[in-house]
Amino acid sequence: MVDDHSNDRTAAIALGFAGVTVLEAGMLEEGWTGKNNAIWTAARRARGRWLLFTDADTIHEPGNLHRAMHEAERHKVGMLSYSPRQMVSGFCSGR
Question: Is residue 61 a contact partner of residue 84, using CB atoms and an 8 Å limit?
């Protein structure tokens, strides 16, 4: 899990789970967003054949990862951006 200098309790909550490693994202490069920086931090440390990038507040339904891997292998792609269904509540003005 990468903490991109958030001001919520995500890192503290993540540390409460066995086996979770919390990395601190480096300083933000000019023109980068916090999310891009967090993904870059994680990708440099990862050692898997496939990497899953997701937000801490995302709920994955049973079978989603299996379906995503099936699609990636079926289409012989090296990267897949997958969003099977999103349920949004509330309103964010983006400011």
Answer: yes
